[in-house]
Design goal:
It contains seven helices and eight strands. The strands form two sheets. It has a five-stranded antiparallel sheet with strand order 2-1-4-3-5. A three-stranded mixed sheet has the order 6-7-8, with helices on both faces. The protein is α+β, with helices and mostly antiparallel strands. Strand 3 and strand 4 form a beta hairpin.
């Protein structure tokens, strides 16, 4: 069936939706319903054919209006205020967690707080406190260090902005074997990103190195 790919944040994961009879193209802003609630997103792919069962995709509610865009800006300011409030609450409760981001759904029906922690956290009282302040549904979502880098952004060892924060939609597995296959120095400081995990870019040339390994003999001469 025909679907459009919608993204909700820069370099975020792309989700597919049924155009619902609307004429949409990349760059259009739309309003859709997700598991989190009603959200504002940007069409980045399609319309194109995807292999899913008919009815499996939720339809785009409508094309976004100038009022929707204003609400997004208003929510951004609310998110900054919510971040400060939640951070203070975390400190007051003495919880071993690091707050890294806040999202408001477009309709304000839910506020999502993203945090990192080394272990499981009992944040039930924190949720109750936040619900009392914001008078809406509260969700606390624990994320990993790679997601933290994606949300916060930064500059990698190469001197450029992080791939995950600028264009890389999803994380793919990266292994130490990829570094070995490229004859890189296996120094953690050299092959790890700001998230302290193996750099995503180790995948970029991995296939080329694998092809070269089969193309050349052990003596360095090309097989004929």
């Amino acid at each position: 069936m025909q679907a459009v790919g919608v993204r909700f944040r820069k370099a975020g994961k792309i989700y597919h939706f049924d155009p619902g009879g609307l004429t949409l193209k990349p760059g259009d802003s739309v309003v859709v319903e997700t598991v989190r609630g009603v959200e504002y997103g940007c069409v980045v792919t399609g319309p194109s054919e995807v292999k899913v069962d008919t009815g499996a995709l939720k339809p785009v509610i409508r094309t976004a209006t100038p009022e929707d865009a204003k609400r997004v800006l208003s929510n951004k300011e609310k998110e900054r205020q919510a971040f400060k409030i939640c951070r203070d609450k975390i400190t007051a409760h003495g919880l071993p967690m690091k707050l890294i981001g806040v999202d408001y759904t477009l309709d304000g029906s839910k506020v999502i707080f993203y945090f990192t922690s080394e272990g499981r956290i009992d944040f039930r009282q924190l949720v109750r406190d936040l619900a009392a302040v914001f008078k809406t549904r509260i969700e606390l979502r624990q994320v990993g260090v790679r997601d933290e880098a994606k949300i916060l952004g930064g500059v990698g060892p190469c001197g450029r902005e992080l791939c995950c924060a600028t264009w890389l939609s999803e994380f793919a597995p990266v292994s130490i074997r990829m570094a070995k296959g490229q004859n890189l120095v296996l120094n953690p400081n050299k092959i790890s990103g700001v998230c302290s995990r193996l750099m995503c870019c180790l995948r970029y040339e991995n296939l080329n190195y694998q092809d070269d390994e089969t193309e050349f003999t052990e003596t360095g001469e090309k097989e004929i």
